Amino acid sequence: MASPFAALGLLPAIVRATLDEQYSEPTPVQREVIPAAVTGRDVLACAQTGTGKTAAFVLPILHQLASGPRTQGLRVLILTPTRELAAQIAERVAAYGRYLRFRHAVIYGGVSQFRQETALQQRPELLIATPGRLLDLMNQGIVKLDQVAHFVLDEADRMLDMGFIHDVRRVIAALPKQRQTLFFSATVPRPIETLAATLLVDPVRVSVTPKITTAEGVEQSVVFVTKDQKSSLLEQMLAKTEVERAIVFTRTKHGADRLSRRLERVGIDAPAIHGNKSQNARERALAGFRSGKTRVLVATDIAARGIDVDGVSHVFNFDLPNVPESYVHRIGRTGRAGATGRAISFCDREERPLLGDIERLLKRRLPVLDVPLLASSEPADTARPGGAFVDRPAPQHAPSRAGDSGQRHTPRQGEHAPRHAPARAAGAAPGRNDGASTRSEDFARPRDGAPPRGGKLPWWRRPRPARRGGGTPQN
Ligand code: AMP
User: Fold this and answer.
1) Which of 48, 51, 54, 464 best tests ligand 1's pocket when mutated (most atoms within 8 Å of CB)?
2) Close Cβ partners of 211 (under 8 Å, ≥ 6 residues apart)
3) Rounded distance from Cα 138 to ligand 1 centre (Å)
């Protein structure tokens, strides 16, 4: 029987390499991208690491190189944000191109330029590079892009988050206008959409965010809070002994720093990682988290993508993500390798539409967690908005105790507001640091019943956290 890769229009030498790799069928992103890309079309693909995206861009490019006239010089540029990704893409290029006679070189920062220069002297047809080192070499006249006919921008959103976007634009300015562009990004926030619009001509759009809605073994819930209740509630929750290792997600880098400082002030060591942090700071934070020295990590979405740490018992969505798919990526940090985990999302009034988007993606409503809310200037805002989830009628929720407590326990003057008394820092018993309720198991179980557990799904349908590319920016 012919290989399904042959049916995508690939040359036999490339199909043979996929057979060597024991790929029995293309992944969804490959199925959609390859037939368009082999014909030279531009592509905008929304796909995260782990979906088979590398083969989705490497295979059709190799096909085009091998089908066209043999020309000298650099024909392909693959731009990727980290050293690790660059090395891994290079390794894939070698594997998929093993029956073709093309040369490739890989260049990234943080190491001596010498060997990379030597590799470039071999006149490779393909170059895999991180933006900073590539610009250096371009400025020195060592790399010329004027013959590039196929350009891949990999992990565009991460480039943006790591502050590489200006370098990326400079590189793009040096590319010939006549070229094929394959644009890959796990998420497509507005600046990425704008960049894509300037780069791509009549692109084929592909989105393969896993359809799967819940990570197996992750118990999810939402807490309705006001903005100013979030930090205190988080402190309270982090104080629980069941929280062995937690990642707290914020929407912005600034928000991550602010929260990290606040937690540290109350005795919870919680370093932040995001694109503005130096390589050293990121590595230090991750090493501490991995080793168990620090129990809590505050992270932005994209910075967290490379985190591959087992034993994360809790994911807290301090802010809901703008892009609902990010929710699935975030909660995939816990409940890994058969373990169970908890994902608790804080949702304030302004975030209601975001919750609606998430629930639409999940095709279910998140159970509402019944927590004793801390003192706040505003009453808790616990009524679930009717329109948040449109596919099913809203279930009847019991009146929220959280809401009650938010109103009844507004601290009087002089009363000790729990936000100043984080239980762990103060050595208080779990659940006791809150004037509103004494039930420590209050956030032990969501009210809407047991979490769904997905059946066994093919690997590319599972929301798989990035195993790779967790490296540091190379610029
Ligand atoms: P990527 O998303 O490119 O990081 O790929 C993730 C992993 O999937 C890599 O280890 C690939 O070797 C593997 N892979 C890519 N395509 C396929 C396929 N069609 N079948 C099985 N594994 C694949």
Assistant:
1) 54
2) 461
3) 32
Q: What is the pLDDT of residues 403-443, one digit of tens each?
A: 333 332 333 333 333 333 333 333 333 332 332 232 333 34
Q: Which residues line ligand 1 (CB under 6 A)?
A: 23, 26-27, 30, 49-55
Identify the structural domains of the chain with CATH numbers, from first to last.
Answer: 4-207 (3.40.50.300), 218-362 (3.40.50.300)
Residues 92-115, mean pLDDT to the nearest whole number: 94
Task: Give the distance from CA 15 to its chain's centroid.
Answer: 31
- Predicted TM-score (pTM) of this structure: 0.57
**How many A from CA of 237 to the centre of ligand 1?**
38
The one-letter amino acid at 178: Q
Q: Atom 16 of ligand 1 has which residue's CA nearest to it? A: 52
Q: Which of 240, 235, 160, 215 is nearest to 248 (CA)?
A: 235
Neighbours of 387 (CB within 10 A): 10
Per-residue confidence (pLDDT) for residue 395, from 0 to 100: 35
Query: How many other C-beta atoms can be found within 10 angstroms of the C-beta atom of residue 363?
Result: 13
Instruction: Give 304 or 268, the one with higher predicted confidence.
Output: 268
Amino acid at 172: I
* High-pLDDT (> 70) share of the chain, %: 73
Using CB atoms within 10 Å of the CB of residue 413, give its burial: 0 to 12 exposed, 13 to 18 middle, 19+ buried.
exposed
Mean pLDDT on 199-223: 79
